[in-house]
TrEMBL record:
Gene3D superfamilies: Homeodomain-like. It comes from the Bacteria. The lineage of its organism: Bacteria, Pseudomonadati, Pseudomonadota, Betaproteobacteria, Burkholderiales. It comes from Undibacterium pigrum. Keywords: DNA-binding, Transcription, Transcription regulation. Pfam families: HTH_18. Residues 162-260 form the HTH araC/xylS-type domain. This is AraC family transcriptional regulator. GO terms for molecular function: DNA-binding transcription factor activity; sequence-specific DNA binding. InterPro entries: AraC_XylS_family_regulators, Homeodomain-like_sf, HTH_AraC.
């Protein structure tokens, strides 16, 4: 599936697919971006020195206009990007640096999911799209003016959650157990639930569903497997279970999504 792009009165929205990429650019506009999936690669932000990066699901970036960026990943990851074309909307932004990263903000993750669903629709609801985009920007403005403490409170847990995310990725087609994940993170169950939400902006169940949907979408796009086989390969209990998840998260059935991907 190619990049989904739509212009609204004051911004451009892009839904970047999970594909390998290499980009080098300087945007004339302030941008807001959210990662839907974990991805690793190399980048250079505002300089020529390249560093390895490990972007987590739920990472939310605000980048100032004029910031030079290079980024490269061998596998990429689905990403929502918003370029603000009307600088008057940024009067309340108080950025402490040219690029700010916020981790695990539940509100911004939910809004990004809603925007993705709207961008994937064939007949887009322009008014609702602008409304959700406005709320996404509003949340970005609020985060930019407050210390980035929510995710950092659990920064010491990140390596533990990294093992959990890797395990989930390897076992997406299997039955996953919450207590097993908590044990893997070496945490009591309730602390694990709080910590995971702060790290990713969502619950373990919602995250696992998201990853299964992302894998299913790749198989729908890149294979001729039946919808039933894809559901089984991605860990859904049955075809209708996957269909319900598609409709709930993306606003489309798997069959409708397959038509979009042609």
């Amino acid at each position: 599936m190619s990049t989904a792009i739509i212009d609204i009165n004051w911004a451009r929205l892009e839904l970047l697919p999970a594909l390998p990429y290499s980009i080098s650019s300087t945007s004339p506009h302030t941008s807001l971006g959210l990662a839907f999936a974990r991805q690793t690669g190399v980048h250079a932000i505002g300089c020529d020195i390249r560093h390895d990066f490990d972007a987590w699901p739920g990472d939310f970036a605000i980048s100032n206009a004029g910031l030079t960026m290079f980024s490269e990943s061998a596998h990429g990851g689905e990403y929502l990007l918003m370029h603000i074309s009307n600088p008057d909307l940024l009067a309340d932004m108080h950025a402490s640096s040219p690029r700010q990263i916020f981790h695990g903000d539940k509100q911004v993750v939910m809004l990004a999911w809603q925007l993705r669903s709207l961008l994937l629709q064939k007949d887009k609801d322009s008014l609702l799209l602008q409304e959700k985009a406005g709320l996404f920007l509003q949340r970005g403005l609020a985060l930019s003016s407050t210390p980035a403490t929510a995710g950092s409170l659990y920064a010491q847990d990140k390596p533990l959650h990294g093992h959990v995310l890797d395990y989930i990725e390897d076992q997406l087609d299997a039955t996953l157990n919450l207590e097993e994940l908590a044990t893997m993170a070496n945490m009591p169950l309730l602390r694990f639930l709080r910590s995971f939400a702060h790290a990713t902006g969502t619950t373990p169940h919602a995250y696992i569903t998201e990853r299964r949907l992302q894998r299913a979408r790749l198989l729908i796009r890149d294979s001729n497997l039946s919808i039933a086989d894809i559901a089984a390969d991605c860990g859904f209990a049955h075809q209708s279970h996957m269909g319900s998840a598609f409709k709930s998260r993306l606003g489309l059935s798997p069959q409708q999504y397959r038509k979009l991907s042609v």
